[in-house]
Write a structure and sequence with these properties.
single chain, alpha+beta, 8 helices
């Protein structure tokens, strides 16, 4: 296969072990096996639900929860790679460190060519609490991440998956008139879906000059109080009828975008 001929910079990629990536070790003794990536989205949500309901705080802090979703996306991409791509040294890497325009970025899932560098990048984030307080800060972060990576790799497919719970419990501290109490918070998913739609759909013809917009985006709203966990694509679809933000179509959309942009280097089945 021919290397990506877009005059991309030299390859600057490191693969990090999870223990070197600043992750907090889990102190829960969770015994759920997450070493093997789930094969289906349903299995992924089932594993995430089990981790989250068993110990909500440490499942998230220890990274087991979100890395289950990383693994699912990586396996879906790996399963679509053509055998010739593996022969040419193309790899799907989790926890890849990739040099952006000014500094190294930790990218959750990357499809990497040994000489041409990153061909497809996927960022993944979950925000399971304090959503209204922090969502705009994280929004700025992911836009900045897109700008940095797109400046260095304009032809690469840049994509993102963002997860919110349908609802979550927040502890309100005691006041002079009220005791400490738990309240159920339901985020404004409609607003957030519209926000993520605004940074999705980088133009296939103008991608070399556009930054800060992802080629593809998935916004997951998941009800973890249901068993099995329930994906609420109905909420997202109603808020974004003209832009597909579903995780169920995400890998297909990413690969379709890659194929349109790289007609001479078709790596995927």
């Amino acid at each position: 296969m021919t290397p990506n001929a877009d005059e991309e910079p030299t390859l600057d990629i490191e693969v990090e072990d999870a223990t070197d990536a600043g992750d907090e070790p889990s102190s829960t003794g969770l015994s759920i096996d997450v070493d093997e990536s789930p094969e289906t989205l349903g299995q992924t949500l089932e594993t995430m639900h089990e981790l989250y309901t068993k110990d909500r705080v440490n499942a998230v802090r220890g990274q087991h929860f979100i890395k289950t979703l990383h693994g699912y996306i990586a396996e879906q991409l790996r399963a679509r790679l053509h055998p010739d791509a593996f022969k040419d040294g193309v790899r799907v890497i989790e926890e890849a460190s990739i040099l952006g325009s000014h500094k190294t970025k930790d990218v959750d899932v990357a499809v990497v060519h040994p000489s041409s560098g990153p061909l497809l990048l996927v960022g993944v984030r979950s925000q399971m609490s304090s959503i209204g307080k922090n969502v705009l800060t994280y929004y700025q972060d992911i836009v900045g991440e897109a700008v940095s990576l797109q400046e260095r790799y304009p032809m690469t497919i840049h994509s993102y998956v963002y997860l919110h719970p349908y609802s979550y419990v927040e502890v309100k501290p005691a006041t002079k008139t009220l005791p400490e109490r738990n309240i159920v918070v339901t985020p404004d998913h409609t607003r957030y879906a519209k926000m993520y739609r605004a940074i999705a759909g980088r133009d296939d013809k103008l991608y070399r000059t556009v930054s800060g917009i992802y080629d593809q985006f998935a916004y997951m709203v998941v009800d973890f109080d249901k068993s099995p966990a329930l994906l609420r694509d109905d909420i997202v679809n109603a808020a974004s009828p003209d832009t597909d933000l579903s995780i169920e179509t995400f890998v297909d959309r990413v690969i379709d975008t890659y194929k349109r942009r790289n007609i001479w280097l078709d790596l995927f089945i």
